[in-house]
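Hi there. Long-time user, first ticket. I'm pasting a complex I've been working with (about 832 residues overall). I'd like to know whether the download I got is complete or cut off, because the file seemed smaller than I expected. Thanks.
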Amino acid sequence: MTAHRPSAGLPFARRLRPLGALAVTVTAAVLLAACGSSTSPGSTGAVDPDATITVGSLNEPTTLNTVKGGNTGHAQVLLRNVVEGLTVLTDEGSVEPLLAKSWDVSPDATAYTFHLQSGVTFSDGTPLKADDVVAALKRVTSDESTSARKKNLSIMQTIEAPDEDTVKVTLSTPSQSFLFYLTSTGAAVTKPDAGNPDTTVIGTGPYTLSSWKQGDSITLTRNDQYWGTKAGNKQVVYRFFTDATAENNALLAGQLDLVTQVTSPDVLTQFDNRPEFTIVEGTSTTKELFNFNDAIAPFDNPDVRHAIRQAIDRKALLTAVWADRGQVIGSMVPPTDPWYEDLTSIDDHNVAGAKQLLAQAGYANGLSFTVDYVPSDAMNIIAQGLKSQLAQAGITITLNPVDDATWTDKVYKNHNFQATIMDHVNQRDLVWYGDPNFYWQYDNPQVQQWVKDSETAATPEEQTALLKKVARQISEDAASAWLFLDPAIKVASTSVSGYQKNNTTDSFYVAPITKR
Amino acid sequence: MLGYLVRRGGWLIGSLFVAGSGVFFLLRVLPGDPAVTLLAVGSSPDQIGAIRHQLGTDRPVLTQYGHWLGDLVTGNLGNSLFTQTPVLDQIAGRLPVTVPLALSAFVLSIVVAVPIGVFAAVRRRGLLGLAVSALTQLGIALPIFWIGIVVVWLVAVQWRALPPGGFPRAGWQEPGAAVQSLVLPVVTLTIAQASVLVRYVRSATLDVLSQEYVRTARSLGYSLPRALWRHGPRNGAAAVVQILGILLASSLLGTVVIESVFALPGLGSLLLTSVKARDLPIVQGTVFLMTATVLVMGLVVDVVQRLVDPRLRARA
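Hi, the file is complete. Here it is re-exported in full:
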């Protein structure tokens, strides 16, 4: 039931989890499935260029400030729609030019010269100047910023505007991912001094932000002066829900045109075989992880970690949560990344092997520990599944449900945990295994070196080769137990089309959506 | 009566102070750091410290408490940690949803429950009376969100008679749509509240029925309804009025669940999202306001009880 497009940012992964609504979805789904459904004909006819598209989401922003990180939910609404960066991450996962129409890179890969698109204006009519871009890039690394990419972008040593259409950036070190980092919400260009940055934002995108009714909705209106291809609809209303059942009901009753992400497969039964709805499955970057505190006993012993992994039947967990959707993974990489390899054979399900490894590690009589997790429909299924699977190998886990903020404080910040289940949404977050201080405290100097080298690699091929090594090594070390990749499921009215299929970016790009 | 009001008013202010302080300190011991929820992956301790400083959560708790108390006296509930907008504005923006919702459910509960309760008492051995008892038992046992889900599914999804949730973006400027969107939430809340109230009214009525003055009235030739009408309200009211205060409080608290089920942008959903984000000033302000409402209602109930029941006045 949780649902949301995560924002870029810490509690990174962190999707919102409505407190009051746990377990509600299943009940409703069962009810609905049992009672059949009425049908109404889908609408037909020509595309309405002035349509209003209503999008349901469970992730209301807590602020519209683009340089704030954390679970702020603003990327989904603002990025690509209201604000734009020099580069853009497409739904297919590639980095493309946006406000920069092209760029030159110095031979040592530390100096970038960006040539800006001509004729770009902010939605209030002010022309975009190179100085505005410089201000934005300085802002994302300033004290004010808590952006997810602040640290990555801090390699920008100088940021200058030699003329009105050119921005020059020098880096302290070459970075294969620099253009990717520039696609983040924090690096998007906003008009300076547009008002309280927490509640107002003026950008160069295909929409202007017309209103934010907190607790209810955000309305975007087409920017008719937009420099690129204008939006296929006149208005987009993001309606925010705290309860997934309420969101599904709104879709069923025709109040919504689509929902950004279905988080529990149970709700799909309501939409199956109904001609007025389309169910679309794409890929996501959301990895469900069972993490250990690798720095403390018993998890500092790799045998224990391997044993736990071998005791887990990932396929069974995936089936329990998502039926035939989604995909089992063997490391921290989704198949959409160039450095993906099928590593699922490492520590494949093997209860006898798990018992043997445990005995070897001195836990022949069993092992018990506590698992912190933030409950949601999917999480509850995973937690219970892990509990019964691990029991077969003599491992007893105590489940400790906590709320989001508690998890962040206890597990993420204070490392005060034994094991935890968490979904990690961010793209390219494999590199966190190169940081020994990250919450799982996996410490392998070789991996840290590879991660570092991959950043400064001379070619993308070299970067890919190094990250492949990282992905394999962390799996061979059983740094974590990677369970599966969530599918990206959207349900939409058949009258709308053109929405993005995957959840591989932080944004939810609405300009191409049309309605009949 | 005046002296009583002054005493009672002083007690009210004291309770508000204690309740407000309680909420303040409880929130401070709650796990979860607002600064951390604003930070990105891999932030350094320095960054966390800087954000705490920006938010003011790095100051000693007692200093924060002093500021909060000082602001409160001047009617200022502070600003949201995340949007910097005044908490009072945020709350005021939610009242047009929550106040009509809670009040309508409260009034409707009374209108529905009092006659049914009296009826159930008079016909307590009849089939209908027993049915009422059974149904109210069910109404109390069922979780309110479940009632909400069933109501939405039936009326909004199957029949499409009313919207399944939401509130018009223009608010009460679209009175028709606003009323429509509140019908189902009010009905849901009423089902839950009236179930409780019916049982109180029923037992209060049973109590009156067994009194000697009713028997006397009957012996004087009054019909049962007439005897009840003559003596019932005044004698039974005190007990029922007392429960009304609690009922209004639970109406208000019920909105937290109801607004989530019906996707209403009210006080309850504000509280829910703010707790999740650890936007402490908003949580504090909202809980304080709800507590104040409940305490004030308690006072009103006491005063009304003394007005209807001369025995209480005599005792004071």
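A couple of notes from our side: Residues 1-43 of chain A have pLDDT under 50 and may be disordered. The first helix of chain A runs from residue 24 to 35.
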